[in-house]
Amino acid sequence: MANLQLGTIDANSSFSEVALKSYMASYGFSNYGPKALINSRLLADDRNSNNRWIKTLTKNKNNEVVKLTQFLKKAGFMPNASHDGFFGYVTQAAVRLFQEYVRTRDPDYDPGKGISYPDGIVGPTTWKNIARWEKLWEEETKDKKTHKAKQADWANLPKEKEEAVLAKTWRDRFKKTVKHLKKNPGALEAANRRFKGKTDSLLPEDWKFPKDQPLLFGIRRFANEDNHEIVEVKKNNKIKKEKRRPVDDLFVLLVNGHSFIFYGSTDSSVHMAKKEQEAYLINGQHLYQFSWHMLSSSSKTYRAFRPAEHGVMIIRDTSGADALTEENIKAGPDQSANTTINIHWSGLGLSNWSAGCQVIAGSSYLDSSESLQKCNSFAAKKTSLLGTSTKPKGGLRTKGAYNMLMDLILVYGRNSRWSPCLPLRYTLFSADDMVAAEAISYQKIAGLRKKLK
What's the whole-model pTM score? Predict the structure, then answer.
């Protein structure tokens, strides 16, 4: 079997270079970015700058892409497969989810026969795991049994009671927080209502939480405190001391009745801010769309979420407190919506890469049973290491847990009512408001953050 990856097309595929331009436009490439993006090239964003732009589609001698997508759909990793013989972004995401599922949830997986790296490349090990699942299906068919033993739990409502309860618990926590905020509007909501321009930041009466769409939540901690740490960093062969805000916040993704927990930061770090007045995304619900981060540099661009249309509302640290204080909130939001506050990757999570964006670490996540899944063995520490070989060799370094979040949204959030360019509802709550609503305790939030490595 041939190696398959992003940009591969089958021998009999009708997909063409002309079709590629239209395809790329649907992923937001026609609206933003440098010339390389506008020229409609596929971006393998887990590679380094030398080979990340796919200039021509690779013709496969056989029709193995269709074979692959048929398997992925049957196994529950690609519910909306089109089987057009083109290995695009959704296929890549589905492959990575399969590889991650095998690595973390498949009881028959034997890493001694090949490590399942979630790098989106279908090589010998991935083909062997596909064949292993298909063999089980054949055996079940002979015994006239169903094909449920080897299908992704993530594709359907949770089969295990524990996972269903966990997801419902998180939804109830957020609903209680919303109810509390509507009864007790504070200074942040007052600041929000003072803004009269067009914005992707919604007022509480416009917040929605549809069960048939992925929902992303941020849990903000200590934003009102200057809890920066003093660290020593080497620059130009000199050791300097800098203030760094900790990566201490949580992100919860609800999708298909499952919950997944990630960590990162919702707050600006002084060392990342280009100006003294750091930006803080206002609490509440915001509309985002699938797009690309670092559009100013084609050598660093990667998948992310950008404000959907108008930009989001931010409050700046005008008082020099290096925190989202009451004084800063009373000063009110910027007078124009901000289009640059993205949801993006933050390396392994060793340092805060945020100048106001919502940043998510790649080193680990808690799966739908809240079990810790470490990604350090294949997650890159920084952009320059993306696409380099892991040790032992066999996979390529990726953005780790961050890819897991993005792939879950892209695969299971893409149906007739949701596509990559339609809004994702991202809701940011403070831990203080969640505790005041009696939705969760400080100890529980701190325990979840501590559990993540």
Answer: 0.94
Q: Give how far the C-alpha of residue 14 lies from the chain's centroid of Cα atoms, to the nearest Å.
A: 31
Clarify whether residues 321 and 184 are in a common domain. yes
Domain that holds residue 133: 8-154
Q: What contacts 403, CB < 8 A, 6 or more positions away?
A: 46, 96, 118, 362
Tens-digit pLDDT profile for residues 400-433: 999 999 999 999 887 645 566 678 999 999 999 9
Let me know whether 398 and 281 are in one domain: yes
Q: Do 190 and 262 reside in the same domain of the chain? A: yes
- Which residues does 18 contact at the CB level (< 8 Å), separation at least 6? none
Please check whether residue 59 is in contact with residue 47, taking contact to mean a CB–CB distance below 8 angstroms.
Answer: no
- Per the structure, the count of domains in the chain is 2
The yes-or-no verdict on residue 238 having pLDDT over 90 is: no
Alpha carbon distance 309, 330 (integer Å): 26
Q: Which amino acid is at 90?
A: V
- Which of these three, 154, 189, 209, is where a domain ends? 154
Nearest alpha-carbon partner for 121 in 403, 405, 412 = 403
- Eight-class DSSP state of 373: E
* Inside any domain, residue 230: yes
DSSP 7: T
